[in-house]
Sequence to fold (126 residues):
Amino acid sequence: MSDCPCGQGLPYAQCCGLYVEDFEGQPAPDAEALMRSRYSAFVLERDDYLRATWYASKRPSTIRFDPGTKWLGLEVRDFKVLDDTHAEVEFVARQRDKSGRAVRLHERSRFVREDGRWYYVEGDWL
Ligand SMILES: [Zn+2]
Fold:
C-alpha cells in the first residue's frame, strides 16, 4: 500500500484516504486534517472531494489540474484554531510544472465549520 501523498508516513487508506474516499461518512476532524486531505485530493485529481470540501459561496465551478504537474510534498507550517468554527492553516506545497520548473505554493488558508464539518474558504498567498 502506498504512502499518503500528504507525507505523514501513513498508508493513504489510514490517512487522507479516510476522508477523501468517504466524504459523507467520515468528515475530517479538524482543519489541518482537511487541508492535508485536500492536498492529497489535488495530487490524486479528485475534484469531487475538492468541490465537496470547498465552502459553497467560494467553490469554483470547475477545478483545473495542470497536466504534467508533479506534486513534490506538503509542509504544514502552522495550524491555528481561532474559535469553535474558524481555523487557519499555513502550508507550503511544492510542485514541479510540466517544463520542470519548481513551484512553491505558500498559503495561509481559512476554514470554517458548519454543521460539524470543516470547509476550506479561501487563502492568502504568502
Ligand atoms: Zn494524508
The mean pLDDT is 96. The CA atoms of residues 112 and 118 lie 6 Å apart.
